[in-house]
Amino acid sequence: MPKISVNTGSALGAYSSAVVAGNHCYVAGTGGFLPGTTTIVDGGVDAEIRQTMENLKGTLEQARFSLESVVSLTCYLKDIADWGRFNEIYREYFPSEPPARAAVAVNEMPAGANIEVTAVAWREDMA
């Protein structure tokens, strides 16, 4: 099966939003951008976390995957104090059988973002 690139219009550089290779979907750093733009959503960290999760969901759906197919997720936070709030909102998107996950605090992110996630999704049947 060939490699398939997915582009959402929110990439800040020369990379695909996601790449499907076989039964796996590798989602690049996804932030709280307004869909199809490189502008961070207004409304503070909560709004940015929610938009990030919606963008992840949309990217996966564009690649013919779903949140339920995510097996691993890494969250990058500009301020580790937002980790608790991230967890609360994250649970709304992964209410049962959540993927393996890591959270990392970073000094800065592109576009002044406060959060970014990467993910790997897997499906048994790609027919």
Automatic annotation (TrEMBL):
Keywords: Hydrolase
Pfam families linked to this entry: Ribonuc_L-PSP
GO terms, molecular function: 2-iminobutanoate/2-iminopropanoate deaminase
Keyword Hydrolase part of the UniProt annotation: yes
Keyword Lipoprotein among record annotations: no
InterPro entries, per the entry: RidA, RutC-like_sf, YjgF/YER057c/UK114
Organism domain of life: Bacteria
EC number: 3.5.99.10
Gene3D superfamilies in UniProt: RutC-like (3.30.1330.40)
Top EC group: hydrolase
Family statement: Belongs to the RutC family.
UniProt protein name: 2-iminobutanoate/2-iminopropanoate deaminase
Organism: Kibdelosporangium banguiense
